[in-house]
Design the sequence.
């Protein structure tokens, strides 16, 4: 199974920084994913520092397999003390999951997560762990097993308390209100991505406020266990051209969406698999060469220039999905969960001619950058295969 | 039957960077006078620059029927087309 995870945040009105912090790391080689959502005391920079420290430390402790009680105590002792309240405080929800469905969840202070299985909300059993040193801190530990299409919803109290004091939501949205939002949207869109679901939760929580402005930092983190959407990007010709046919057949047999980035690469696949290339009659749009079309291939673009632009789009705060070849490639990548990059090592000397008016990036480097940002920022599973 | 001359403009990385897209746009209007007898086709790559050891600085490449034009310009292409008539 693949774990589709995303978190959308909205900072408190008039604050410049979100006081909640989300961190996530995927370990493709051991099919593991760790994520932590923390809410720092107060708001703004101070809260951000507290939540950032908590989430980062907690993720490291979980990664190292440390005892959760000990980890919580160390974190509490490490956090700076608030000058006003004279305490150090931040809440957290930490998730350690495996793609086989086994999940360990540790919660302290955040609203309890919502587990949706077969459209029903399940309330799992948990063990409470308390600390002698910090008697007011109680950590709930859950060990659960998820099945395909199960979802987990985590949030900061900014969500469950949204609308607090208003005529319609005197006690705020509360956990039940959040559960209703999620179950209602799943009836309409059962396969909604974690990103879109998180976004929907935030937008619905904002609607609870009469002025539609967040009164606290809001975070919605969703996990969705499902079959992975596989994608393959084939770019660059293999180093040894006698292997062209071998790699072209791997491309042919791949189960999932397929893209080719590179003119020579497209010609190679066309030749080896006997698939004609259709070049669109459309003029080259702006500063990128146009797309081509091949039967059985979802996307055919030029190579380095398009890849470099797609990387620039991925680097933006909100990924750009312009209707140009790089925008289509960005869309292609973001709508996939597991992306295999088959990267040809043959270098086209002409790309590095000093007479060229612009500098062309080295394919291997740009692919490494794209892979890294997809793994770290977009939490995709990325596999590199050099040819 | 009237002879049709095919003009293939390479839009591979090197040719594109060396001005193939602008060349394509210019050609579109310049070659209108030939009507259906000249067929201009942008192609994803002619694979010339990668296979030419000494001439890789000669992009953009255009192919008029089976003849390769290096450092292609509108003038060079029209000359070649006129010879073909």
Sequence:
């Amino acid at each position: 199974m693949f774990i589709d995870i995303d978190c959308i945040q909205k900072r408190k009105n008039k604050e410049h920084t979100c006081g909640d912090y989300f961190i996530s790391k995927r370990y493709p080689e051991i099919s593991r994913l760790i994520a932590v959502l923390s809410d720092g005391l107060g708001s703004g920079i101070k809260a951000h520092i507290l939540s950032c420290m908590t989430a980062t430390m907690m993720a490291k402790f979980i990664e190292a397999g440390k005892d959760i009680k000990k980890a919580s105590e160390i974190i509490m002792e490490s956090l700076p003390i608030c000058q006003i309240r004279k305490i150090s405080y931040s809440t957290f929800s930490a998730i350690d999951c495996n793609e086989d469905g086994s999940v360990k969840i540790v919660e302290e202070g955040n609203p309890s997560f919502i587990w949706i299985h077969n459209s029903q909300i399940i309330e799992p059993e948990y063990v409470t762990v308390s600390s002698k040193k910090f008697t007011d801190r109680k950590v709930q530990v859950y060990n659960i097993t998820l099945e395909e299409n199960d979802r987990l919803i985590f949030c900061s109290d900014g969500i469950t308390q949204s609308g607090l004091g208003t005529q319609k939501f005197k006690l705020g949205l509360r956990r039940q209100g959040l559960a209703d939002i999620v179950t209602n949207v799943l009836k309409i869109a059962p396969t909604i991505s974690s990103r879109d679901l998180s976004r929907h939760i935030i937008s619905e929580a904002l609607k609870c406020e009469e002025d539609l402005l967040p009164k606290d930092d809001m975070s919605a983190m969703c996990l969705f266990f499902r079959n992975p959407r596989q994608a393959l990007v084939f770019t660059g010709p293999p180093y040894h051209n006698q292997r062209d046919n071998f790699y072209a057949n791997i491309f042919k047999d791949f189960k999932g969406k397929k893209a080719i980035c590179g003119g020579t690469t497209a010609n190679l696949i066309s030749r080896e698999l006997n698939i004609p290339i259709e070049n669109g009659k459309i003029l080259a749009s702006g500063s990128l060469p146009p797309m081509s079309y091949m039967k059985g291939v979802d996307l055919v673009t030029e190579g380095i220039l398009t890849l470099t632009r797609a990387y620039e789009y991925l680097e933006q705060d909100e990924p750009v999905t312009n209707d140009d070849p790089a925008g289509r490639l960005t869309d292609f990548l973001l709508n996939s969960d597991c992306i295999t990059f088959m990267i040809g090592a043959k270098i086209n000397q002409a790309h590095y001619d000093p007479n060229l008016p612009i500098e062309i990036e080295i394919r291997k480097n740009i692919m490494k950058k794209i892979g890294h940002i997809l793994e770290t920022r977009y939490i995709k599973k990325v596999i590199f295969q050099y040819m | 039957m009237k002879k049709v001359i095919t003009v293939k403009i390479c839009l591979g990385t090197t040719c594109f960077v060396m001005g193939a897209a602008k060349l394509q746009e210019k050609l579109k209007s310049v070659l209108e006078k030939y009507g259906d007898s000249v067929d201009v086709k942008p192609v994803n790559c002619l694979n010339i620059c990668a296979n030419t050891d000494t001439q890789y600085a000669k992009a953009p490449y255009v192919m008029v029927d089976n003849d390769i034009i290096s450092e292609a310009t509108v003038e060079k292409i029209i000359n070649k087309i006129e010879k073909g008539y």
